[in-house]
């Protein structure tokens, strides 16, 4: 193969062997994750470094060449290449992506393939060729000091934007999911433009715009300043013209001093050659948006919009201003490539959200004032009326969830407003006093009201090597621009009617953090936000969605796993105006970016000028929560009952009911079986069996057998009663003092289950009142005899079918 390429004129430097395309999709099992095989092309032919032209898939001579065709085609399509080759050393097949495939006698030369590439990409001018061939910048370093090289999709995004610039396009849009490196794309694009002749040989003046400090400080400090040095400047408070790469907040550019005009207007309209608008869906692309005047003033510049949020309706302001994206890399693409974390989805419904709350006649709020007589629903909660127990129930559910998974897992809770966040912190703090005693900042509020202390807490929370804070409660502050790779749980307790805001919130969890073994994340949705914004074309399906049902006391009785929705839900209109100010457009947004609907407008009129109503004494419990699981086909979702899940997993064990009861009877074999049930492949625990199958009176092994084979359930008390009745001679064979220990063991088994049939249980009450373990063993004639007696008792307990 290599001789054939060399004969066609390909140098060693132009042939990249074992070319890594992605990292391999992360597949999440009940407890851990593993990677699928990464996509690695046998060979990629490059015209210049980082300018790939074709993929070559090479097979052994004993293998049919056709075996490599689809593989080569798949790799080339991923890399955006027009042609691929498959060979077995005897035959060479050329595959035109989207076209013909045919056998060829030899490989084309580098110049031939470059001309074909230019033809496919419609590259006709010297500037277009110069920009594509300009080297990518490798001066940035990873933590291990290796060069930070752009990923394949980042190179494609940069090149598509450069071609649009070279062709005179003034408004350009790139859509890349949160966590996929929009800043890297912006950095590489600027670097290429600076090294090209795009601006007549002069270094272009660049303005990087955003609406939050963190959105300008992070790219400036981590990407641009380390490479470009003193030519980088953040505009703040005055005009500065002695630099080349500027960063600025809209707010700073729109400010003025005294009678001076706004700062942006003090720059000539043609001063900047390129303007990069980060999170461009947010602040300025709406025609009547608060900061649209800034972009209008610099209309002669090329304006590049970056967003993580696709908007399907091209009439909306982002697409209306910038046009269709020249390149898009979706969340589902990032998950498929293994660059982003897959997610599980848990939808939780509270009874008062499902049924609404109506005060009793004459009912008073916590201040002793009458509660206006009307039905309050989810849209009123925390804005017009706050139910204390609703906040406490969310805190209880989340605390139990973390106890079942990982109490130290970084978690972000999004509340309706800062007041709601304050009360949520209090409720979570109360529910976790045991941990708060050791970690005073286990739960904290991080909002715009918390000032410098809040920013310090945020800096600690963002780090993956800190123990606290663990739970960060916010309303709006953490929705965007904050890189938190260690976040494992995203909890939504705020109504969201804005697609961009929803995407940004979810994006807080999509970053991988394999240093702490974070390869997936969980979304816990209390307000059905994930139903409103189901977008499988962009997001891909969740790994699973859970539905938990509870009784009237709020205790979990059943868990179901739901089928994935067939397609996107009906879209809720996105705000037409400025994302933060709510100005402009026909569907205004509130100060946190949520669309104000007609119903909300009525509520606002009713509550305008009045205080928020606080209510307590309301019964609140989890109505149900839903669990979706990825179907074996790897694409669709299905809701399954937990009982069905247990049935399928138990049959995989290939053990009969008798085998299971026999292994469960003695402590040693029970621990072996327990480990097998807890494994990644099975993922069943005794706690889940008792809680989800709603038979706390039965032993886990009986629940397991009942779910798998539908055999009748036998309660623990019935098993103990049968032992006393049918194995009376066995019990009477022991001395009275030993029989007393066995009788207590039967009582403890009835109350607690098989875990009491182990020697370790003899160290706690009520056995402690009977004596030490050594003293109890002496009643049987020694420790071996005692262990044998306990195992014999357990065998008789579980011998009853």
Automatic annotation (TrEMBL):
GO terms for molecular function: ATP binding; DNA binding; helicase activity; hydrolase activity. Residues 397-580 form the Helicase C-terminal domain. Residues 560-577 have a biased composition (Acidic residues). One of its GO terms (cellular component) is cytosol. GO terms for biological process: DNA modification. It comes from the Bacteria. Keywords: ATP-binding, Helicase, Hydrolase, Nucleotide-binding. Residues 163-328 form the Helicase ATP-binding domain. Residues 559-593 are annotated as: Disordered. The keyword Hydrolase applies. SUPFAM superfamilies: P-loop containing nucleoside triphosphate hydrolases. This is DEAD/DEAH box helicase family protein.
